[in-house]
Design goal:
D-Maltodextrin-Binding Protein, domain 2; 12 strands; about 45% helix; two-stranded antiparallel ribbon; about 450 residues; eight-stranded mixed β-sheet; 19 helices; 2 domains
Length: about 450
C-alpha cells in the first residue's frame, strides 16, 4: 500500500553446496563462518552459530518471532534480532554497510527504494546461484513481479516477504442503485465518477492520493496503463504524450470529483473519506483494505466491492510490488547460516503462516491456498490473483535518489490536480529528472 515500511534482500546458498562446503571445511564455512559448536551433527551443520538480523518494526516480524524457536531448534542457529523504526533501520544499515561491518548477517531492505543503492554499493549477495536449483525452495513459486522489485541488473538481490497491488475499491450499493457497471476502463471510471459526484449532498465520485511524493506510487498504475514510463533506462520520459495524458487524467479525476483538499490527501485521508461513506470510487493498495472493510473503522464495510485496476490504452497495468525483502550482507562471516534463515523465513510453510496472520506474501501457491486467505474478502482475493499475472514490479523511478525523483515527478501531478496548465510543469520535471539521472550516472 505504500505504507513506506521496508524492503530487503537476502543471499541464500543451495543445500547441496552447503553440504559440500561443510564436508570440506569441517567446523568452518567456506566464507570463514565462525561456529561455536563442534559442527559434528550432520542434521545441524550450523549448530552453535549466531546470526544478527536487523529489521524495521513490522507485523511480519511479530509473527516470525513467535515461530523463531522452531527454526533455532531445527537448525541450531541462534538468531539475534535488532529492530528499529524504518528510518532508523535504513540509517543503521547504511552506516554498517559503509563500514563493512562483518557482524551483520541478514538485512531488511525496501526493494523499491534501495535495490539500486545496495546493488551499486556492493552491499548484498546475489541470490540467483543459490536458489534457482533448489527444488525444495522453489523460487519459481514467487510472483514474478515481486521478484522484479528485488532484481537489479539481472541479479536477484533480495527475497520478498510482503507484497501489495493497486486495486479499485467501489461502493456496490451506489453502482447498483445508479445502474452503473463496475468500471473496467479509464473512460468508464471517469464517467462513473462524474455520475456519482454529488458535492451538495456530501458525496464525491473519486478519491486517491494527491499529496506530492506519496501520490507518485499510486499515479504509477495510471502512467503505465496509459502507456507511459517514468524513464526508459537513462532517459527521462515524463514529457511523452502518454505520460502527459496520464498526468492530465489523474489531475482531472482529483480536481473534478474528489473531496476538497484532495491535493493534501495521503492514503489515510483518502481511505477515511471512503470509509465514512463520502466517496464512491477509490484506488489504492490492497494492503489497506481493512481500513474500509473493518466495521470498527468503516461505516460502509458491508457495501465495499473490489475490482481490477481499470485499463487504459495500454491495458490494465497496476503496480504489483514487494515493499519489504530479506537480504544477506556481502560482509557477513555467516553467509550460509544467514541464507538458511532467509530460506526458512520465505519458505512455503512459513509464508503460509505469516500470510494467514495478515501479512500478504509473495508466493503464488500460498495465495492459491484457501487457508491463507480465509480472512480476506473473496472478491479481493480474486483481484489479487489476477493482478499478480499482469502487475508491474515497480511503482516509482528506479534511481538511487528515489525521494528526490518522486519530489520532481510530483510537480506536474500537483499542477494537474490544481487545474493548472501542466505543460510548463512537465517540461521542468523532465529537465530536472534527466539532470538527476545524468548526475547519478556520472558518479558511478
Amino acid at each position: 500500500m505504500k505504507l513506506n515500511w521496508g524492503k530487503t534482500t537476502s543471499a541464500m546458498m543451495a543445500s547441496v553446496m552447503l553440504a559440500g562446503m561443510l564436508a570440506a571445511c569441517g567446523s568452518s564455512g567456506s566464507n570463514g563462518q565462525t561456529k561455536t559448536g563442534n559442527g559434528a551433527d550432520k542434521d545441524k551443520p550450523y549448530a552453535g552459530t549466531e546470526i544478527r538480523f536487523v529489521m524495521a518494526v513490522h507485523p511480519w516480524l511479530d509473527t516470525i518471532k513467535t515461530m523463531l524457536p522452531e527454526f533455532e531448534q531445527k537448525t541450531g542457529i541462534k538468531v539475534k534480532i535488532d529492530s528499529f523504526s524504518q528510518e532508523q533501520t535504513s540509517n543503521k544499515l547504511a552506516v554498517e554497510m559503509t563500514a563493512k561491518t562483518s557482524s551483520l548477517d541478514v538485512m531488511f531492505i525496501r526493494p523499491l527504494d534501495e535495490t539500486k543503492l545496495f546493488s551499486k554499493n556492493g552491499w548484498v549477495e546475489p541470490l540467483d546461484p543459490f536458489v534457482t536449483n533448489d527444488a525444495n525452495y522453489d523460487v519459481k513459486d514467487f510472483i514474478q513481479s515481486s521478484l522484479d522489485s528485488s532484481t537489479y541488473d539481472g541479479k536477484l538481490i533480495a527475497i520478498p516477504i510482503t507484497t501489495e497491488r493497486e486495486v479499485l475499491y467501489y461502493r456496490k450499493d451506489l453502482l447498483e442503485k445508479n445502474n452503473i457497471p463496475v468500471p473496467k476502463t479509464m473512460d468508464e471510471l471517469m464517467k462513473a465518477a462524474e455520475k456519482l459526484n454529488d458535492p451538495k449532498n456530501g458525496m464525491y465520485g473519486f478519491a486517491a492520493r494527491g499529496r506530492k511524493v506519496v501520490a507518485v506510487t499510486q499515479f504509477s498504475g495510471f502512467l503505465y496503463s496509459f502507456g507511459g514510463k517514468f524513464h526508459d533506462g537513462d532517459k527521462a520520459t515524463l514529457n511523452t504524450p502518454e505520460a502527459i495524458t496520464a498526468f492530465k487524467y489523474y489531475g482531472d479525476m482529483l480536481n473534478k470529483y474528489a473531496p476538497p483538499g484532495a491535493i493534501n490527501m495521503h492514503w489515510t485521508e483518502a481511505a477515511a473519506a471512503f470509509a465514512q461513506g463520502k466517496v464512491a470510487l477509490f484506488t489504492d493498495a490492497d494492503a489497506i483494505y481493512l481500513n474500509v472493510a473493518d466495521p470498527s473503522k468503516s461505516t460502509v464495510s458491508d457495501k465495499v466491492g473490489y475490482a481490477m485496476f481499470p485499463a487504459g490504452p495500454a491495458g490494465s497495468r497496476p503496480y504489483n510490488v514487494s515493499s519489504g525483502a530479506l537480504a544477506v550482507s556481502k560482509y557477513s562471516k555467516n553467509k550460509e547460516a544467514a541464507a538458511e534463515f532467509v530460506k526458512w523465513a520465505t519458505s512455503k510453510e512459513t509464508v503460509l503462516k505469516t500470510q494467514s496472520a495478515g501479512n500478504p506474501g509473495a508466493r503464488q501457491s500460498v495465495w492459491n491456498n484457501p487457508e491463507s486467505t480465509k480472512s480476506y474478502p473473496a472478491d479481493l482475493v480474486k483481484v489479487i490473483n489476477e493482478s499478480s499475472k499482469i502487475g508491474v514490479g515497480v511503482d516509482r523511478p528506479q534511481v538511487i535518489g528515489v525521494a528526490e525523483a518522486r519530489d520532481i515527478i510530483s510537480g506536474p501531478m500537483s499542477a494537474a490536480i490544481e487545474g493548472k496548465d501542466i505543460a510548463a510543469a512537465v517540461e521542468k520535471a523532465q529537465k530536472d529528472f534527466q539532470a538527476l539521472i545524468d548526475k547519478e550516472k556520472a558518479s558511478q
